[in-house]
Amino acid sequence: MIEPRSSPLHPALAPWLAGINQIAAQAAAKGIEPTPAAAREALANMTLYFGGQAPEIAAVRDFVLPSLPTVPLRLYDPRPGQPLPVCVYLHGGGHMAGSIEVYDPIYRRIAAHADCLVVAVEYRLAPEHPYPQGLDDCIQTIRGLPSWLASQNLGDGRGLLVAGDSGGGALTATISALAAHDRSLAVRGQALIYPSLDYTLSQPSTVENGAGYLLETARIRWYFDQYFGPHDDRRAASPLFMTAAGLPPTLLITAGYCPLRDEGYAYAERLAAAGVPCEHVNLSDMLHTYLNLHTLVPQACDATYDAMASWIARL
Predict the structure, then answer these.
(1) Does residue 7 lie in a domain region?
(2) Count of helices and strands (H, E) across the chain
(3) 285, 9 in Cβ contact below 8 A?
(4) Apex 60 CA angle, 55 and 62, nearest 5
(5) Euclidean distance between CA atoms 13 and 5, whole angstroms
(6) Distance of alpha carbon 23 from alpha carbon 55, whole angstroms
(7) Domain containing 298 — which CATH number?
(8) Which pLDDT tens digit goes with each residue over 44-76?
(9) Given the DSSP bridges, would you call strands 187-193 and 117-121 parallel, antiparallel or unpaired?
(10) Which of 160, 225, 234, 249 is nearest to 197 (CA)?
(11) pTM over 0.85
(12) Which helix (H) or strand (E) holds 76?
């Protein structure tokens, strides 16, 4: 039986979403235009109110790489002294919002569920730092991190897992494509959670789920307009259109009511055609950014973290 791409929206999300849509309609009626500051505040507040209480982690430390002192990093270590897998997590936010502090509950849950080290990256954000500056921060972090981990006797020495949601998924998939031809990027697996993979927004779900489901296609276009310059080739920058040959084993999680859903399906098909191992899980009653809504849909969130844990354990 083929799993449906969407089923009725989770009942815990429907009343909350109705309130969000009412607020959005009122803002539109007043002619309120989006701003980067408002986008950042909205994601931060949503995660603060609905992110829930995260587990305690044995050791949490802020650091920088000697080779990259301008990019703050944070390490979450659930079992200090043990050779655990290392997962670099690149937060979402449309390349414009999100931060280590906003995503702290998510990092902690990944470390706890998957029994792995999590390294969070404070990459630069648009529009102050447009494409490819944030991407470059992530590339240089992944390039320099293994030697730093070795100097600190951290990790299992088997290469890095890279994970990300939404815009962070775009960064993750881009780095994985680069790593296929660059041995200085030691990526042994990628986990993509409702990732942004097609900057041209040409997949059917951008229409089907394009309005009324929190992340709207018009808003995504606005995000991309802040991220890219007028002469950037958005298709060339899209992981969906990069070669799939040589990509690492992949965990892909999509959401039924996400406008980016079909980008994930198309990407999974390209990986399958290239012979790349890909585990694809579609949560058909979820919408984009559900990991930031933990108190509303804890079972879906825990299922996602458990899927990551199982996938990491099998690599």
Answers:
(1) no
(2) 10, 8
(3) yes
(4) 140
(5) 17
(6) 32
(7) 3.40.50.1820
(8) 999 999 999 999 999 999 999 999 999 999 999
(9) unpaired
(10) 234
(11) yes
(12) strand 68-77
Q: Is residue 2 part of a domain?
A: no
Residue burial 62-96, b: 16+ Cβ < 10 Å; e: rest: eeebeebeebbbbbbbbeeeeebbbbbbbbbbbbb
Structure tokens, 295:
């108190």
Quick: pLDDT tens for 276-288.
999 999 999 999 9
Task: Confirm if 221 and 201 have CB atoms less than 8 A apart.
Answer: yes
- 134 vs 122: CA distance, rounded Å: 9
CA–CA separation, 237 vs 68, rounded Å? Answer: 24
Alpha helices in the chain (DSSP H): 14-29, 36-50, 100-114, 133-151, 167-179, 205-208, 217-227, 234-237, 261-273, 298-314
Per-residue pLDDT reduced to its tens digit, 93-126: 999 999 999 999 999 999 999 999 999 999 999 9
Is-contact 54 48, C-beta < 8 A?
A: no
Domain hosting 20: range is: 14-314
Asked if residue 137 is part of any domain, the answer here is: yes
DSSP state, residue 16 = H
Q: Name the domain count of the chain.
A: 1
Name the strands in the sheet holding 160-165, side by side, starting at the edge strand that comes first in the sequence. 59-65, 68-77, 117-121, 86-90, 160-165, 187-193, 250-255, 278-283
Tell me the average pLDDT of the chain. Answer: 97
The answer to whether residue 167 is domain-embedded is: yes
Percent of the chain surpassing pLDDT 70: 99
What phi-psi label fits residue 235: left (phi over 0), alpha (psi between -120 and 50 degrees) or beta? Answer: alpha
Q: How far apart are CA 17 and CA 289, in angstroms?
A: 12
